[in-house]
Amino acid sequence: MMKKIALAAFAFAVAGSALAIEPDKAIKTRQAGYAYIGWNMNKIKDNVEGTYNQAEVIKAANAIAAIANSGMGALYVKGSEKDVGNVKTYVKPEFFSKPQDAAKYAQAFTKEADELARIAAVGTVAEVKAQHGKVGGTCKACHDDFKMKN
Amino acid sequence: MMKKIALAAFAFAVAGSALAIEPDKAIKTRQAGYAYIGWNMNKIKDNVEGTYNQAEVIKAANAIAAIANSGMGALYVKGSEKDVGNVKTYVKPEFFSKPQDAAKYAQAFTKEADELARIAAVGTVAEVKAQHGKVGGTCKACHDDFKMKN
Q1: What is the interface pTM, i.e. ipTM, of the complex?
Q2: Which of A8, A10, A86, B38 is deepest in the core (most CB within 10 A)?
Q3: Do B70 and A59 touch (CB under 8 A)?
Q4: How far is it, in rounded angstroms, from Cα B2 to Cα B107?
Q5: Domain boundaries, chain A
Q6: Is the Cβ of A46 closer than 8 Å to some Cβ of chain B?
């Protein structure tokens, strides 16, 4: 399902549908999603490097996975590939011209985030740390290719 | 667990801990969480009022519930009760001086969001619509008392 939605959205297929979102709102909303993911990634990092609180890690991992699975692809609507007024986007144009590459990164992220949520509930600290690293790796891979320096 | 964390955080108890977050980052992160919740609430609204896509509603409801359960209370650190430079907060001072009232709203929101995620998976459109309304009611109740007009 993620695959289908991601591919469709990255090809701007949702533009004009009942669920379309204005480009400036789309930019702000995807940035909000990534910011919230980032905070939860940092919390897990603090936990695996410091005092481990499994309940906190589970909640953080669940938030990351749920956001990853929420259909963020729909936030890459036509018009959101460039700044809208003073709403800046840091997505490189290549993200929009190579939708299948972009979708692959999104799928990798979602897969590893789902696994992190699973491991958080049953795994050791070392296992969570390793899987947290894998999720971070999928973030970095996409940022390296598709995110401008900001 | 939500109750404990919410109360502790609203009383600024996390300040200074390993998990403390800078006030400006805390303001931006909580706004990001609410923005992402808002987008997903709107998606569910579009679904119950238009063409219903259960898979999309489930994913949206899961994102809302996971964010609600992610420990947002930790984002109300000391120093974040007022604007930090050009990072504005729209939380009224009363939110911080009445932490138990604030926590009650947070708990009500989390409870109804959990129920929405549960109903999304098994319920009818009418049931989802009714529960979506209940979640929205908990948003509005808190906004009415604790959010500035912006």
Answers
A1: 0.89
A2: A10
A3: yes
A4: 7
A5: 2-14+22-146
A6: yes
